[in-house]
Design brief:
single chain, 388 residues, 70% helix, 14 helices, mainly alpha, 2 strands
Length: 388
């Protein structure tokens, strides 16, 4: 009972509220149409319960124990991710042109790439802290070597995930790692060069699309899978490429039809493919309107706000790095998911944290919240201790 008291109460209450919203709208999204034979509410409730238990279990660890499990967990998840390449269809079925899940009897599916977030967070933080302790006087050469080591850690499994293909997950990894590099203490000029590289690449792609569309189509899009190409065109020109933009256009209709206060719970009549997963926000906005959608977004960003406050209070650089990575990851994921449902961003298959249906996504996020609880417990435990 004393361990429960050391959890952050406002975060726990937020997760219980989000869990209630999630179960309600996973249910309403899966019963009003004939796409599914039954509701997913029971599975989502079980996933939520397991997730909360995992969060509590991880919170019982201390920082040193967390560091010890980093590399073994990283090795296990990288092996599972690589195993998808050779796994037969009977245990790793291709879904929507992506081979990203293991099929587990009675439980559903397991997506190893989701758990790479937890592994990357611990391992990269350890490498950065070891670098800081070894190089008291920073130098460009040492900092460059740090970037090389981090690249060797994250690039091989990230390339495996990209080849599945799962571009959305790759974006989440980058959203988590980049702020950790910012707080790593490396030379600002080197960090500026490193940050400029993706900006130059993105700018070049935009210029090629606008000014040299033929070259863009042949050379850039030609390197992508058919599934990725259709999503890009469905985002850029949704009313010309109607097949690939069907999900986005239906999401527009669902959100717009909710108007200010919504149609009421279970009164969703606009079909959106996979509404209970990636597009669950369209169900919330349709049934609860602008008011309900705004309240849900506020609750999600309150979670991030609490994580930031907890991270700021942390006295340990290792904790600060992890807290920065987690808060940045969630902020990006929320923005990306809601942005794609309203057409501002391309559809990437990124879930809405703590709301979308999906065991792997939910459990991996609760594992990260377990780390947040360790950070909270650690600084609370030492706040009133006096140093000799």
């Amino acid at each position: 009972m004393s361990q429960l008291k050391r959890l952050d109460g406002s975060l726990v209450v937020s997760f219980l509220l989000l869990g209630g919203v999630s179960c309600l709208f996973v249910h309403s999204s899966s019963v009003n149409f004939e796409q599914y034979s039954s509701s997913f509410i029971i599975k989502q409730f079980i996933f939520y319960l397991i997730g909360l238990i995992i969060m509590f279990g991880i919170s019982l660890l201390d920082i040193e124990q967390l560091k010890k499990i980093g590399w073994p967990f990283y090795g296990l998840i990288v092996a599972l991710t690589a195993g998808l390449i050779v796994a037969p269809e009977s245990i790793a079925r291709t879904i929507n042109e992506a081979k990203s899940w293991y099929q587990i009897p009675f439980l559903g599916s397991l997506q190893p790439s989701e758990f790479l977030k937890f592994a990357f967070l611990i391992v990269v933080s350890k490498v950065i802290i070891a670098h800081q302790e070894k190089n008291v006087r920073p130098s460009y050469l040492a900092d460059l070597w740090l970037l090389v080591k981090i690249g060797l850690i994250i690039l091989p499994p990230t390339l495996l995930v990209y080849k599945q293909p799962d571009t959305g997950m790759v974006m989440l990894y980058m959203a988590m790692i980049l702020p950790m590099l910012f707080f790593s203490g490396i030379q600002r000029k080197l960090l500026a060069v490193f940050t400029a590289i993706p900006l130059v690449i993105i700018s070049t792609v935009v210029v090629l699309f606008v000014r040299f569309n033929d070259f863009f189509t042949v050379k850039i899009l030609g390197a992508l899978s058919g599934h990725q190409i259709s999503r890009i065109y469905g985002w850029l020109q949704p009313y010309e490429y109607t097949d690939s933009s069907y999900q986005v256009r239906q999401g527009f209709l669902a959100i717009g039809s909710g108007e200010f206060v919504g149609k009421g719970y279970l009164n969703n009549d606009i079909y959106v493919p996979e509404k209970h997963t990636d597009f669950i926000f369209s169900a919330i906005a349709e049934e609860l309107g602008f008011v309900g959608g705004a309240l849900v977004i506020t609750l999600l960003f309150f979670v991030i706000y609490r994580i930031v406050l907890i991270t700021v209070e942390a006295r340990d650089p290792f904790m600060t790095l992890m807290g920065a990575g987690i808060s940045s990851l969630l902020a990006f994921q929320i923005t990306q998911n809601i942005g794609m449902t309203i057409g501002l961003l391309p559809v990437t298959g990124v879930t809405l944290p703590f709301l979308s249906y999906g065991g792997s996504s939910l459990l991996s996020n609760f594992m990260l919240m377990g780390i947040v609880m360790i950070i909270h417990k650690s600084y609370k435990g030492y706040m009133f201790k006096v140093e000799n």
